[in-house]
Amino acid sequence: MVLVLVIGDLHIPHRVHDLPAKFKKLLVPGKIQQILCTGNVCDRETYEYLRTVSPDVHVVRGDYDESSFPLSVTVAHTPIRIGVIHGHQSVPTGDLDSLNAIARQLDVDVLVSGHTHTFQAVEYDGRFFVNPGSATGAWIGSYNGDPTPSFALMDIQGPVVVTYVYQLIEGEVRVEKIEYRKEPEPVREAPRPTAMPQSIPSSPGPTQSVW
Q1: What residues are paired with 84 via a beta bridge?
Q2: Which has the higher per-residue pLDDT, 32 or 146?
């Protein structure tokens, strides 16, 4: 079992001062093996905080990050392959067909993306797409009102990914569970020979020496 924290769009300190206190109480060191962050961390202190939760942190560059994070990351928890992008590469934003094309390009079973500040976990075309939303509930120009603060935990058990979404609604943390199972790869039969094998010739009889 591997427990992976999926988090992003923090926008600290530009839009929000800090993570919600009730989220911080849940994110204690020693329980989470890996962190996948969809970007827009925005400051060094927030990145260092994530490293106190788990030292294995993978961050991709968001459209407001000035750090030299990569645009995409791929990690493997056999047999599951997970890709991470910020999400602004998807046109239109959050479009499943566009995200599916990116997932095919990265050759992953699960694609984690952000940018919309809205949680989503859905299976599409045999792949699993997770958007953890904004962990701080940071405002976004195209959204009317304040987004709901959210993050996700993925419990990976072989080919099964159980995703728990944590949302802060009216001051209380609410949890929802979504399960994805990777279907086994079809077994391809070895091609059968079309020609009959030739019979093995018998050993030649003893020959007389010329000496």
Answers
A1: 73, 112
A2: 32
Q: What phi and psi values does residue 60 have, to the nearest 5 degrees?
A: -105, 160
pTM: 0.83
Distance (Å, whole) CA 150 – CA 53: 17
56-96 residue pLDDT tens: 999 998 877 777 899 999 999 999 999 999 988 777 877 89
| 8 A C-beta contact, residue 99 and residue 129 | yes
**What residues have CB less than 8 Å from 48, skipping those under 6 apart?**
none
Which residues are CB-contacts of 87 (< 8 A; sequence separation ≥ 6)? 38, 93, 94, 113, 114, 115, 116, 131
Least confident segment among 56-65, 127-136, 157-166? 56-65
Q: Do residues 60 and 38 make contact, with C-beta atoms less than 8 angstroms apart? A: yes
